Amino acid sequence: MNKIKSALLLCSILCIAAIVKAQSIDDGKKLFYYEKYISAKDVFNKLVIANPNDVDAAYWLGQAELQLNDTASAQALYQKTLMANSNSALLIAGLGHIELLQGKTADAHNRFETAISLSNSKNAAVLNAIGFANVEAKTGDAGYAIDKLTLATTLKDGAKNPDIYCNLGDAYKKLGDGGSAQKSYQTALSIQKNYARASYKIGKLYQTQGFTQQDIFLKYYNDAIAEDANYSPIYYNLYQYYYTTDVTKSGNYLEQYLTLMGADEPNACYYRASMKYAQGLFKDAITQSDNCIAAAGPTPFPSLYGLKAYAYFRLGDSTDAKSSFELYFAKQIPGKIGSTDYVTYARVLLKLGAADTALATTSINKGLALDSLEADKVTHLRSIATDYETSKDFKGASDYYSKIVAVKANPTKTDLYNAGYSYFRAGAYKNAVQAFTIYTQKFPDDAFGFYMMGKSYWGIDSTMQKGLANPSFQKAIDVGLADTVKYKQQLIGSYKYFVPYYVNVKRDKQMALDYCDKILALDPTDAQALSNKEVISKLNLKPAAAKKTPPSSGNTQ
Q1: Given 157, 302, 351, 445, which is the most exposed site by the fewest CB atoms within 10 A?
Q2: DSSP code, position 137
Q3: Is the pLDDT of residue 390 over 60?
Q4: Is 318 a member of any domain?
Q5: CB neighbours of 86 closer than 8 A, spacing ≥ 6?
Q6: How far is the first Cα of the chain from the last one, in angstroms, to the nearest whole number?
Q7: Does residue 556 sit in helix, strand or coil?
Q8: Number of domains forming the structure of the chain
Q9: DSSP structure string for 329-366
Q10: Are the beta carbons of 169 and 138 closer than 8 angstroms?
Q11: In degrees to the nearest 10, what's the CA dihedral of 186, 187, 192, 196?
């Protein structure tokens, strides 16, 4: 009887332990879902300490470490745990994830296929891990992720798992299939109504695709808050969204985010300093960043140096901005350095003078290489062109306006005008002709392009002796006469070219007077035309003597 009681007691203890373990794993995964990776790591670490062969806990501990950018610890953990659990498909998938992050795509694929084989393609958790890895890593294969995650949804332990469907949505988004991505997110919501991550992802989908109606994606963000007000990523995204447009809203969302995250956001000091920057209090942002750096000890948050760099840049202090950017680049994880960082650093270098031009160009190219969207490339190039323009370096401005023309699939009139007119102002008339030639080819019914091409040729042939500008100005007149109101200035400018041309080159008094009359027909008060007409009418012009043709060198008879 005592043996039976002892057995029952032991069974009860084991059952309780299993329940506690399951709850602990679930608690850790819930923290991971809320992106509280520090707390999640703590939960999973305790489980691994209690049982080093708990492969589920080890896998999730490694995932938390990866989110905290500690790839080395995650890799060491997976390798160590695999020594005693060599057939763990989940840990093998985890190692594949790390290899993807390291750019070892072939090795990673082999790991994934091994994990699938060991689990007979029937373990949804393994398939989900593989799908998530391929979504998260830049070198991951979105199509492969879709295949494995779709397979996971057909399994009993995956069909009702919203996490799998959300990862599937991310995979479709990575592939560029927004419609299928949204359907997957909505399926996740149909499985679990308060799964705020899915609504958030739909909102993010609309936002990142450049959807102009903010009411659409904000609706989904508000839906996510209504579904689960504790889902902190929503507040962080809204803090970023309003950062440059509504500082008050941005600050409020930031405080909600920091309150929810607590100790899981170790960089709260940085974010609060960033709000000083958003408010235009650049000196305060620098001071607060310095205080954060001092309080952090040996490992300050790298973005603090970047914040200081931007603040110095906005204050016009290029020397301190340069040193702060260089500290930021030295301390920040390379993958977290963005295109705007490189381009702004380049703008700082260009302000410091010609000695840094080559380094600036390299930095600009790094930034542009990180941009996948045409609009982002154009924004960066335009900022540099504007800097050159502000400093009256029109040649520099024209070079970057020309890069915009080269980058854009469909350059606008403004793009071509900016490139051509900047070359014109710089005195680079041949380049200006090239730019305005493209303008006239693309917009043949616009007199302005032909007019500016004429002015550019006039810059090359300043004495008018070759008549290089004549065809362009004549074409500007022909096109402009279709709308004399719209093209009044271009018509007058073109006529004013022909007045001195017929006086000085052709010596044709009547034609010169006719062009004066054309000007006055459009603007009877034009003082220059009135004055020219009076002067020309008194001239006694004789046609220019024809150049004599020299005799041939041969014998004459």
Answers
A1: 445
A2: S
A3: yes
A4: yes
A5: none
A6: 148
A7: coil
A8: 1
A9: HHHS-GGG--HHHHHHHHHHHHHH-GGGHHHHHHHHHH
A10: no
A11: -30
> Helices marked H in 353-412 — which ranges?
357-370, 374-390, 394-407
Distances (CA, A) of 417 to 410, 413, 434, 457, 458: 14, 6, 11, 16, 17
Task: List all residues 6 or more positions away from 474 whose beta carbon is below 8 Å from its beta carbon.
Answer: 494
| Containing structural domain, residue 359 | 267-370
**How does the average pLDDT of the chain come out, rounded?**
92
- Which two three-digit tokens encode residue 409? 């699939």
Position 13 pLDDT exceeds 50: no
Question: What's the pLDDT at 546?
Answer: 52
Reading phi first (left if > 0) and then psi (alpha if -120 to 50, else beta), residue 102 is in alpha
In the three-class reduction of DSSP (H, G, I as helix; E, B as strand; rest coil), residue 287 is classed as helix
Q: Which of 296, 297, 303 is nearest to 274 (CA)?
A: 303
In a domain, 412, yes or no: no
pLDDT for position 545: 58
What pLDDT sits at residue 286? 98
Within 13 Å, how many C-alpha atoms sit on residue 269's CB side?
Answer: 18
Judge contact between 64 and 44, C-beta under 8 A.
yes
CA-to-CA separations, 9 to 3, 4, 50, in angstroms, rounded: 10, 9, 21
Q: What is the CATH number of the domain that holds 295?
A: 1.25.40.10
Asked if residue 341 belongs to a domain, the reply is: yes
pTM: 0.73
For residues 77 and 60, the answer to whether their CB atoms sit within 8 Å is no
Contact 153, 164 (CB under 8 A): yes
Q: What is the DSSP letter of 263?
A: G
Distance CA 412, CA 247 (A): 33
- Amino acid in the structure at residue 497: Y
Rg (CA), the chain: 35
5 within a domain of the structure (yes/no):
no
